Amino acid sequence: MTTGCKTTTIFLTILCGLLLTILGLAQDWPPLAWLLLAALLIALPAAAFKIATARRGPLPVDVEEHRTAPPVERREHHVTHVALPSRWDDYDFLFSATVRWYPLEAPSNDPVLNPAGLAVEAVLNRARAITEQREPGRPSLTQHELSGALSRMRPDPTGHLQVMAEDVTLVLREYDQERLNRLAEVRKDKAVWEHQRKYEQSKREYLSEDVLKDTGSAVVWWLAKNDDRIEKTVADLGLLAQLTSAANDTDVPERLRDLIPRPHDERPTFDLREEPPVQPERQPTAADHFEAFLNTLDFTDGEIQRPMLAKQIADIIRTQDQHETAEDILRRFHPPASHTSNDGEPPTSPDDTTDNRPAA
Questions:
Q1: Nearest to 134 by CA among 168, 88, 170, 180
Q2: pTM of the model
Q3: Which residue in 161, 246, 301, 355 is a FRET match for 226, CA 20 to 30 A apart?
């Protein structure tokens, strides 16, 4: 009889005794009846326990063996930095994990001599089947894949053990990881360069095959670029003709040559049989700059301000030891003949404001 059955029997016996006691008090039983009731309450539980024990009998053999069998023995072994191949040659993963196993029942003539070796071999074979199909660029992703694949107990090839692995880590050697990072940067730069090259090539094709195909196409493109400013486009026809001819390596058409702008300092054409001598360009002097200054102020020839300003500027230049430049300005703008007037008297300067009137 189990413990639950014993508890139930005792509870029912007590409950029946209470009911019979209440009934006996209500019926005013004689003392003999109370003695029989007490004996009955004691005898019934004892008889029930004895009957239940006789019916149960001894435990089965297999149950007894199961209860007395030793618990399953589990073992573990740590492996660190075991090189496993990747999909790329010469780039190995470094595998670390805790290998766990428990032995299965083996025939008496085939004992397991080194269960740790068999367990490690089984785990490494399972891990290698995965890593040799993966590229080394993402070791963390492959690590999580291995953690899931090795987390289940599976029998080893010999059938003696159930094997699994925990705490799996998978990394690359430091110099291999640095090399892969550099290769990734090169691939990214190459991709950017390829995009730029294709963009420039497309732009060249667009200009040569569409925009600058001929002068008419260039004019239409230029007109669209300048927001329909017809006057500007017409003024640039010569430049567009030159640009189109240069892009197509051809001469400017005869009908458009008159539109090509000419430089202002273009030399006149001469007979090819008599080439004129090339005269070196004269550098402008200080007197030339001073003349341009006077012209800017609208001091034309014949005005008295020109020699006066020339005299003053020459005096200032002499103080800087530039005597030759001062003389050049005086010869050009203040000749000796201008130093005297027609009646032999020197001209009166606006600065020489001497009052000759008698004093009051």
A1: 88
A2: 0.43
A3: 246
- 86 shares a domain with 54: no
**CB neighbour burial string for 208-230, b if at least 16 within 10 angstroms, e if fewer:** eeebbeebeebbebbbeeeeeee
Distance CA 76, CA 71 (A): 16
pLDDT for the residue numbered 124: 96
Gap between the Cα atoms of 336 and 167, Å rounded:
111
- In whole angstroms, what is the distance from residue 324 CA to residue 166 CA? 101
Q: Does residue 74 have a pLDDT over 70?
A: no
Facing residues of 166 across strands?
Answer: 98
Asked whether residue 34 carries a pLDDT value surpassing 80, the answer given is: no
Q: Determine the 3-state secondary structure of 256 from DSSP.
A: helix
- Number of structural domains found in the chain: 4
- Other C-beta atoms closer than 10 Å to the C-beta of 173 total 15
Give 3-state DSSP helix, strand, coil % of the chain, rounded to 5: 55, 10, 35
* Domain that residue 302 falls in: 286-339
Q: Inter-axis angle of helices 3-27 and 31-56, to 10 degrees?
A: 160
Cα–Cα dist 354/352, whole Å: 6
